């Protein structure tokens, strides 16, 4: 590709087409560009266009395309061709810095990104002059250029903040420090001086302050890994200036914007980070400066307003104080009573106040509000930072801090009492203060688990919380109501049961509040109360205690789902699920009504599933309805099928992918309730379940396998009869699963059900093929998981069809195959089988091989008899061998990307573990003893002699024990 | 029955999981790139302007030293040194020496460039002119104390054999001057150190140690010996080490703090290597004395003694046991609480290596009361100490028994490391996550994972680990993510209503589930 006008023209046209809104124009152009990007000069053509094109749009487009090209192609991957020719690489590196610096900002940003991508690969070895080139620009005096350099440096150096220490990394940092640290320091000083000379020129100040912010960021990156000698020597310069900037205010730089942080805030915020870095990692060297920073940051906090734009700065600044006040050697900076009082009064209390921004979120953006307030995504908020500072101070000063705040709480509460309508925010702050003061440890499952003993939580509940809960107008002061509900919820483990019981009906009535936050909190609080454990591992609140409120509870929960903004409220849905689960048979009378509402909801959300948690709890609730009702009367299963199948059919027909795993689980649950027959409605669906498309999605596999297992259990006769032509398809599923290291165990679940339930004559023709497939897999990829499943299957087969059949089918595939499998697989690996049922199957199967297989007594297999017996005794007596060969340590994870998350398991659709042997064999050890006895009477003398020659003493001792327990003797 | 083998094999799998236990011992990697200032406690590699103990009265040497006459210019010096008159030569040498001794910017290069070095070296051999000999030696010593380039000039002018011969000088101050010069040359690095050793410097030095050698002389000699033991890549030849060790041991039993300090530094250099090198030191039987010196009231003695023991416990289990038997665990608690952060750090480093040992040693560590100071350091220590302390916890949790891990958690270590999850150091965070994972594995054996999950959450750990899922470092992200997946997965969906769901999900028994994850 030549660098000529023709090519520039062509490229311009294609670039323009990539901006076309019509995909029919856009896509081919994108395809074309990708097809030619491997040509030499392609990147240079782009650089030419972004520099020289007359069309501004094309220039930007070329810049973006160039950046993406670099992102995709610059890295040289081992064993793959170099995707950018060497001359192009050299030319790009020679020109890009200049180009970046002389370009307008939009293009500069793209090129700066490109430089950092190239730098990540080539810097410093393959781009030795980059740094000096950049440093030279510091002297240009043009701050647009300087900021370009600083921005690029920032994107090159910021990885020092998260990479592990290594000689390679530190050599690079050292090199950077050697060339960069001094010029950066000079630039820092010069910039600060310029700020003074231009103190009245707002435009100049803006540019200079963005430089200072970038310089401060570079300082952070360069000082992150360790304290460099240069910066230790120049700490005075840096820290004095940082301190000065922290205390500086310039009216010209104040912004009117309430939301967006201004330049001053960004700079100060970064300086707080820098100080925090030094305080944490280089305490010894930083100690002389620290008190000054504490004072400056504290003054900063006292003088900073409530606007949202200051949030990051304020929370960083408070976090700095919080981290310092916990250190024993800085204790003295805080311990003075006046200091403590002033921190509490001027820093903590103001930042706990409910601001208008919070009020807006409470009303208009309840989801965000709940996420922050309830789920702890409030990391960067002022309230959270203030809370952390309270906890930090309590480490050394719990009593004085509690005393100071008690005073505040009381005065705020009396302010509120004077004029609740006007001063409700005072009460909100008081509650928040009590909460942060009282909570020392907290979990989602139990709420607050450790509380400050100096705070009387129960008294506060009775005097200040209960009144809000009891207030007849649930829609008055919704914020205070939400606070009160939250108080019950988080202190649930601290409050006595009678208080909780008193709160339950009040919470139920709050489910009807108009405020989304309020009724959501009520649902959540109820849900949490219902999961609390009482004595004997039962629930703290019993179904009997709930009896007077059951109807009201169910009514209000479902009514809450109809409130505006809560149609798919996951907290309410979860509370429904939890209520069903708590109330059990008490819900049966209401189910006919409720199931209609649930299926209606399901139909609605299946149009456009958007709230995964809501949907999950919805299906859980459906499962609970089915289980609880059918437990009382299994005949009702058909009425559920009538209600649910139309919706399910729609979901299946529309292929609503998110819901299929759930639908399969609910269907399994329903089908498993049936006695030993399968309704025709299920059989009609059977062929569809075998469709390959369904099995391509990993999330479908576990529930589909379970569903097919239910089909086999209930309908094997039907399948063998009217659907015999589907058997190969069914086995095809098995084959598909067995081919995957991740899903082979699912294939075995299916195969085991086939062996267990299908009439033998219906599968006789496929048996040999099944084994051949298994052997192939064994040969090509023998993983521990596969072997474990294989062992269980082989033994189940033996139990079902007999040891002779097993031996014959093996040997018919290949002579001596049976012996080889015994020797190479069963004997050495059976120790790895896990699970009680699995072990039992293996024990019974091996017993049969030992005692019911003539070939084991009369052929060359005889030599395997004692080792097999010894392995069986090992299975009974030794700890399970869970070792895994090194090379397959990570197989399952690698082969199943996102598997666990893709399969949405329903807890309440659970199925009981299936034991194909069941009561037929009570104790496999006794069975072994009896079977050996039988064998020994059939061929007297042989068994004892085999035992005495080669069974080891310990095993023999165990065996004697079994024989004694079975009261038999070997002859 | 192969019970024992199976169990052993499993333990080794457990320990091997993810990392080689040998690597848990952190060796000091001296050749690594440093960003910091050279450590302030370390010995100086080269010394200029020390005082000779055996220096006769200054006036006797330099009658004009108190004169107010202006010092000679470099031109005058060149003229004098190059003259044939012994008197002028002596005057020139002395003037050069004085110029080179000035505190600020001594004109080392100017003197070298003036081509005076070959003259100085030739003066060294003039046994008849002790004053000239001495002044030349002094001047050369000062030049050798400069940068590598300066030292190189001195060596390349043939000063090494001349200085070694001077060691035998009957004039004590001249011999001592040679000791000093050789120390500076040895301190330059492994190459010149080995040149000196090749020239048999060691026997010549050791020959000067006798019962009536003045203490001051011994101090300088010990320092020179320590420089001959110093530096890696390569280490000093084993034969030289074996030659020098008996005398070092002897010196370590003297009472002078400077001698003790340099002798300890020498031992610390010799023990800073692979296990074979450590073995040579341990075999001398000096370990108990080193442990004793760890309690020495002088920081300059205690620091290198601690460093030496730290090196020794970074060796094999057996070598570590030698230090443990000598009582190192009784001394460490007070050092962990020492007022100087650098001492705390070294002590914590030693502790982290002992914690990497077998559970028997871990038990001794618990018995000797090391857990309380460890937790104190995790909570309030200087960052560098916290880092070592975190390693100690991780090593402890990967090699300790379940009971030992429980003791550790009860001592407050879990809470402390969770607090440290906010440090600004990706590696430390990863090491902590590793420790938390190890603690969970212990809890799994006790069937108490759920309890531990709650504890970690109560301590604020869940929040922090969740936040780490946003960490820019991929390995940190992975480790945090896998902890959350394994131990904090949506626990509440499973844990509902025992009677109906407890065994329900045995659809896949827990064991099958486990293999599923690996």
Automatic annotation (TrEMBL), chain A:
Q: Which UniProt keywords apply?
A: Cytoplasm, Nucleus, Protein transport, Transport
Q: Which residues form the signal peptide?
A: none
Query: What SMART domains does UniProt report for this protein, alphabetically?
Result: IBN_N
Residue ranges annotated for the Importin N-terminal domain, each copy included:
29-102
Compartments it resides in: Cytoplasm; Nucleus
Gene Ontology molecular functions? nuclear export signal receptor activity; small GTPase binding
What GO CC annotations are associated with the protein? cytosol; nuclear envelope
Task: Specify where it is mainly localized.
Answer: cytoplasm
Q: Which GO terms describe its biological process?
A: protein export from nucleus; protein import into nucleus
Keyword Glycoprotein annotated: no
Question: Which superkingdom, per the lineage?
Answer: Eukaryota
- Family assignment? Belongs to the XPO2/CSE1 family.
What is the protein's quaternary organization? Interacts with cftr.
What the protein does comes down to: Export receptor for importin alpha. Mediates importin-alpha re-export from the nucleus to the cytoplasm after import substrates have been released into the nucleoplasm. Negatively regulates fluid secretion and plays a role in fluid homeostasis by down-regulating cftr activity.
- Stated name of the protein: Exportin-2
TrEMBL record, chain B:
Note one Pfam family from the annotation: Arm_3
What are the GO cellular component annotations?
Answer: cytoplasm; nucleus
Which keywords describe this protein according to UniProt? Protein transport, Repeat, Transport
Q: IBB domain: from which residue to which, for each copy? A: 1-57
Is Manganese included in the keywords of this UniProt record?
no
Keyword Protein transport found: yes
What SUPFAM superfamilies does the entry give? ARM repeat
Q: PROSITE patterns of this UniProt entry?
A: ARM_REPEAT (PS50176), IBB (PS51214)
Q: What family does this belong to? A: Belongs to the importin alpha family.
What protein is this chain from? Importin subunit alpha
């Amino acid at each position: 590709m030549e660098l000529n006008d023709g090519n520039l023209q062509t490229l311009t046209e294609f670039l323009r087409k990539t901006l076309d809104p019509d995909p029919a124009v856009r896509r081919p152009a994108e395809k074309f560009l990708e097809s030619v990007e491997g040509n030499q000069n392609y990147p240079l053509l782009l650089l030419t266009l972004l520099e020289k094109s007359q069309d501004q749009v094309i220039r930007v487009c070329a810049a973006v395309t160039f950046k993406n090209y670099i992102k995709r192609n610059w890295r040289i991957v081992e064993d793959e061709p170099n995707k950018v020719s060497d001359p192009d690489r050299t030319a790009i590196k020679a020109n890009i810095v200049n180009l970046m610096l002389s370009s307008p900002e939009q293009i500069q940003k793209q090129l700066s990104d490109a430089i950092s991508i190239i730098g990540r690969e080539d810097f410093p070895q393959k781009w030795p002059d980059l740094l000096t080139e950049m440093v030279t620009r510091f002297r240009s005096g043009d701050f647009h250029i300087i900021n370009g350099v600083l921005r690029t440096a920032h994107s090159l150096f910021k990885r020092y903040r998260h990479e592990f220490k290594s000689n390679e990394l530190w050599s690079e940092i050292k090199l950077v420090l050697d060339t960069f640290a001094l010029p950066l320091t000079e630039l820092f000083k010069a910039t600060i001086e310029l700020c003074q000379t231009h103190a009245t020129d707002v435009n100049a100040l803006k540019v200079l302050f963005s430089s200072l912010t970038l310089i401060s960021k570079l300082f952070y990156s360069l000082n992150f890994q360790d304290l460099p000698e240069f910066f230790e020597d120049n700490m005075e310069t840096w820290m004095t200036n940082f301190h000065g900037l922290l205390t500086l205010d310039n009216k010209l730089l104040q912004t009117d914007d309430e939301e967006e942080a201004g330049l001053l805030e960004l700079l100060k915020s970064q300086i707080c980070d820098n100080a925090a870095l030094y305080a944490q990692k280089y305490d010894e060297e930083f100690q002389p400066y620290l008190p000054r920073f504490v004072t400056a940051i504290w003054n900063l906090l006292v003088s900073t307003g409530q606007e949202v734009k200051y949030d990051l700065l304020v929370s960083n600044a408070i976090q700095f104080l919080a981290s310092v006040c916990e250190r024993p050697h800085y204790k003295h900076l805080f311990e003075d009573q006046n200091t403590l009082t002033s921190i509490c009064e001027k820093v903590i209390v103001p930042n706990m106040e409910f601001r208008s921004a919070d009020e807006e979120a409470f009303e208009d953006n309840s989801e965000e509000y709940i996420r922050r307030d309830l789920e702890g995504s409030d990391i960067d908020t002022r309230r959270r930072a203030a809370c952390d500072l309270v906890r930090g101070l309590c480490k050394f000063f719990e009593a004085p801090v509690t005393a100071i705040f008690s005073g505040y709480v009381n005065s705020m509460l009396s302010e509120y009492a004077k004029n609740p309508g006007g001063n409700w925010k005072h009460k909100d702050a008081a509650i928040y203060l009590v909460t942060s003061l009282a909570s020392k440890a907290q979990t989602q499952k139990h709420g607050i688990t450790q509380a400050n003993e100096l705070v009387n939580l129960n008294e506060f509940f009775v005097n200040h919380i209960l009144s809000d809960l009891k207030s007849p107008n649930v829609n008055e002061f919704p914020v205070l109501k939400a606070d009160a509900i939250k108080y019950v919820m988080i202190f649930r483990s601290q409050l006595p049961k009678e208080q909780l019981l008193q709160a339950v009906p009040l919470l139920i009535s709050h489910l009807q509040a108009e405020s989304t936050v309020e009724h959501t909190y009520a649902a959540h609080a109820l849900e949490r109360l219902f999961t609390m454990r009482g004595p004997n591992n039962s629930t703290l609140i019993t179904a009997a205690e709930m009896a007077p409120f059951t109807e009201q509870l169910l009514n209000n929960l479902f009514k809450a789902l109809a409130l505006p903004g809560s149609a798919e409220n996951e907290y309410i849905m979860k509370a429904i699920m939890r209520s069903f689960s708590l109330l059990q048979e008490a819900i049966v009378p209401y189910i006919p009504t409720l199931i209609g509402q649930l299926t209606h909801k399901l139909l609605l959300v299946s149009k456009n599933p958007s709230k995964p948690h809501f949907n999950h709890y919805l299906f859980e609730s459906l499962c609970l309805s089915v289980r609880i009702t059918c437990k009382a009367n299994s005949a009702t299963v058909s009425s559920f099928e009538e209600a649910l199948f139309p919706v399910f059919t729609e979901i299946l027909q529309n292929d609503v992918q998110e819901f299929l795993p759930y639908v399969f689980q609910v269907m399994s649950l329903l089908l498993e309730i049936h006695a030993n027959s399968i309704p025709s409605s299920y059989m009609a669906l059977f062929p569809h379940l075998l469709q390959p498309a369904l099995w391509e999605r990993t999330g479908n596999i576990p529930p589909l396998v379970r569903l097919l297992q239910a089909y086999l259990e209930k309908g094997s006769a039907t399948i063998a009869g009217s659907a015999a032509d589907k058997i190969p398809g069914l086995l095809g599923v098995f084959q598909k699963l067995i081919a995957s290291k991740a899903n082979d165990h699912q294939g075995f679940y299916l195969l085991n059900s086939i062996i267990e339930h299908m009439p033998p004559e219906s599968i006789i023709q496929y048996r040999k093929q099944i084994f051949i497939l298994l052997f192939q897999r064994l040969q090509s990829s023998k993983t521990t998981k596969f072997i474990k499943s294989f062992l269980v299957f082989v033994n189940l087969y033996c139990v079902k069809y007999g040891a002779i059949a097993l031996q014959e089918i093996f040997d018919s595939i290949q002579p001596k195959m049976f012996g080889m499998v015994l020797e190479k697989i069963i004997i050495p690996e059976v120790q790895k089988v896990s699970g009680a049922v699995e072990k039992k199957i293996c024990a019974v199967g091996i017993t049969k091989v030992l005692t019911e297989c003539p070939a084991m007594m009369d052929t060359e297999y005889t030599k395997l008899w004692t080792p097999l017996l010894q392995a069986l005794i090992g299975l009974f007596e030794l700890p399970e061998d869970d070792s895994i060969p090194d090379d397959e340590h990570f197989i399952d994870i690698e082969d199943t990307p996102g598997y666990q998350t893709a399969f949405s398991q329903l807890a309440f659709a659970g199925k009981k573990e299936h034991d194909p042997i069941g009561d037929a064999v009570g104790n496999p050890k006794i069975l072994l003893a009896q079977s050996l006895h039988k064998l020994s009477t059939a061929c007297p003398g042989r068994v004892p002699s085999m035992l005495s020659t080669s069974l080891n003493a310990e095993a023999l001792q165990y065996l004697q024990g079994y024989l004694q327990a079975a009261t038999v003797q070997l002859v | 029955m192969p019970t024992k083998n199976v169990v052993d094999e499993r333990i080794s799998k457990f320990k091997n999981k993810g990392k080689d236990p040998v690597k848990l011992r952190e060796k000091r990697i001296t050749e690594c790139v440093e960003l910091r200032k050279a450590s302030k406690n370390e010995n100086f590699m080269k010394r200029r302007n020390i005082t000779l103990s055996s220096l006769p009265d200054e006036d006797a040497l330099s009658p004009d030293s108190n004169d107010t006459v202006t010092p000679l210019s470099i031109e005058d010096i060149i003229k004098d040194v190059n003259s044939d008159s012994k008197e002028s030569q002596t005057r020139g040498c002395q003037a050069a020496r004085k110029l080179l001794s000035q505190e600020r910017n001594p004109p080392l290069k100017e003197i070298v460039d003036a081509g005076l070095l070959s003259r100085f070296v030739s003066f060294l051999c003039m046994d008849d002119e002790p004053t000239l000999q001495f002044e030349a030696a002094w001047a050369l010593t000062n030049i050798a104390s400069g940068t590598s380039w300066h030292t190189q000039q001195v060596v390349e002018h043939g000063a090494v054999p001349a200085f070694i011969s001077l060691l035998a000088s009957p004039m004590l101050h001249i011999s001592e001057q040679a000791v000093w010069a050789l120390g500076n040359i040895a301190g330059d690095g492994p190459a010149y150190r080995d040149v000196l050793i090749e020239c048999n410097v060691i026997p010549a030095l050791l020959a000067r140690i006798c019962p009536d050698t003045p203490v001051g002389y011994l101090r300088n000699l010990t320092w020179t010996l320590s420089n001959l033991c110093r530096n890696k890549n390569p280490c000093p030849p084993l034969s030289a080490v074996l030659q020098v060790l008996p005398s070092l041991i002897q010196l370590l039993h003297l009472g002078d703090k400077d001698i003790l300090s340099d002798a300890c530094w020498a031992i610390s250099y010799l023990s800073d290597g692979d296990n074979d090198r450590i073995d040579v030191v341990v075999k001398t039987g000096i370990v108990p004395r080193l442990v004793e010196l760890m309690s020495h009231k002088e920081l300059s003695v205690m620091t290198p003694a601690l460093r030496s023991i730290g090196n020794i416990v970074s060796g094999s289990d057996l070598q570590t046991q030698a230090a443990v038997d000598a009582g190192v665990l009784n001394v460490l608690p007070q050092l962990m609480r020492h007022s100087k952060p650098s001492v705390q750090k070294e002590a914590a480093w030693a502790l982290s290596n002992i914690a990497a040992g077998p559970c028997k040693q871990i038990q001794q560590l618990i018995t000797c009361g090391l857990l309380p100071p460890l937790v104190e350091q995790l909570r309030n220590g200087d960052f560098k100490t916290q880092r070592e302390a975190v390693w100690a916890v991780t090593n402890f949790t990967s090699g300790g028994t379940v009971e030992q891990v429980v003791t550790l958690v009860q001592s407050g270590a879990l809470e402390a490391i969770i607090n440290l999850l906010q440090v600004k150091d990706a590696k430390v965070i990863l090491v902590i996550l590793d420790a938390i994972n190890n603690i969970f594995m212990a809890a799994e054996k006790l069937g108490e994972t759920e309890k531990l999950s709650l504890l970690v959450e109560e301590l604020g750990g869940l929040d922090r680990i969740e936040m780490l899922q946003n960490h820019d470092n991929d390995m940190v992200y992975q480790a945090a993510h896998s902890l959350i997946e394994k131990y904090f997965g949506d626990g509440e969906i499973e844990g509902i209503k025992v009677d109906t769901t407890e065994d329900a999900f045995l659809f896949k028994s827990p064991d099958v589930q486990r293999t599923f994850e690996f």
